[in-house]
Amino acid sequence: MENDGIYGFTDVSTIDEPSITISARGTIGYSKIRNEPYMPIVRLISVIPIDDVDIEYLNFVFEALLEKGEGTSTLQLTIPYLKEKLIPVPSHIIQIKIASLIKNVEALIYKIQSNSKEQSLLAESCKDKILETIFAENSSYKSYYGERKNMTLEALINKDKIGDGDWVLSENMDERGEYSLIQLKHIGKGCYQGYKSYNHVNNDFFISNNCSEIKENYLLINRLIADSMDVCITPKLGFRTITSVDVCWIAPDSAYNQKYLMYYLLSPSFQKEVLIKASGSTRKRISKKNLIKIPLFIHDRKIQDIIAEKIENAFKILETIIS
């Protein structure tokens, strides 16, 4: 599907008239109109429509009716199968009108998707600006809420309230296990991605490895960094969970507001310090030891509640605008 399906080049063509190619194995059902001369590679089916069938209309029919899929377990498409496929063929004029209508709708969808992507990027930029305005060390906004304390996660959080996830290998998995495994994929930028699938471990593994149970309102930090360090809060899930070793967890406590702490760790100024302290050649990782020593400038506990609520309300407005 990449590069319009061009595999290579040759000075010999076997098909010289407009046609449609359909991928028949591996990734199946991907169709593409070809107006230039070409030689089809093995496992590629070429279809040349008769004069009464508009090629753009036929391609839309294939996109709608042909089975699609990826992977070795997917059945291959065959010429006998395609030959038996029943397709609707109205008059040539109607075919052209249908194809034109679909192209106009697709152009509109693309425009909407592009605008949505731009709005999402703008919203993320606004969120970063809000967090930077509140949490940057030199921010004038701090005067509105009073002075802040020079602190670290190590000084702020009791040792029994912070830890790393557990070592869980593929051979430790048990589909019928009582504990679901929260992995890096579940931790988003300020959001928990619970819709993604879970692996499981059983109670014997939990006990023998002295695992830490992750509960509602735990702060989860992805220590394996791509462009930034993702942080989220565990919602009420309705099942028991542990988390993997590259995740640092912080249990709730009266000494700090979990949402305030999440927003602070997501702020551009803190993220910048994280990248400085991180190590690794292919993908950055920050150790829990280095993470908890990064300086923080923390508001008083009561002020944390106010700030967290204001940020959350501002973010909800941004999400409403996007939707």
In sequence order, what are the helices and strands, one letter per element? EEEHHHHEHEEEHEEEEEHHEHEH
Classify the helix fraction into a percent range: 25-40%
Total strand segments = 14
Strand-residue fraction?
5-15%
Helical segment count: 10
Shape: elongated
Q: List low-pLDDT spans.
A: none
Main pleated-sheet profile: 4 strands, antiparallel
Global structural class: alpha+beta
Gyration radius, in Å: 27 Å
| Main sheet strand line-up | 5-12-8-10
| Mean pLDDT figure | 89
Can you describe what's shown?
There is one protein chain. This protein is of the alpha+beta class and about 325 residues long. Helices cover about 35% and strands about 15% of the residues. The chain has helices spanning about 55-65, 80-85, 90-135, 140-145, 155, 205-210, 260-265, 270-275, 290, 300-320, and strands at about 20-25, 30-35, 45, 150, 160-165, 180, 200, 220, 225, 230-235, 240-245, 245-250, 285, 295-300. Helix 1 packs across helix 3 (about 90-135), helix 3 runs antiparallel to helix 10 (about 300-320) and helix 7 (about 260-265) packs across helix 10.
Show the helix and strand layout.
Layout: E1 19-23, E2 31-34, E3 44-47, H1 55-65, H2 79-83, H3 92-135, H4 142-145, E4 149-151, H5 153-156, E5 162-164, E6 179-182, E7 199-201, H6 203-208, E8 219-222, E9 224-225, E10 231-233, E11 240-243, E12 247-250, H7 258-266, H8 268-277, E13 284-285, H9 288-291, E14 296-298, H10 301-322
Parallel strand pairs: 6-11
Antiparallel strand pairs: 1-2, 1-3, 4-14, 5-12, 6-7, 8-10, 8-12, 9-13
Helix pairs in contact: 1-3, 3-10, 7-10
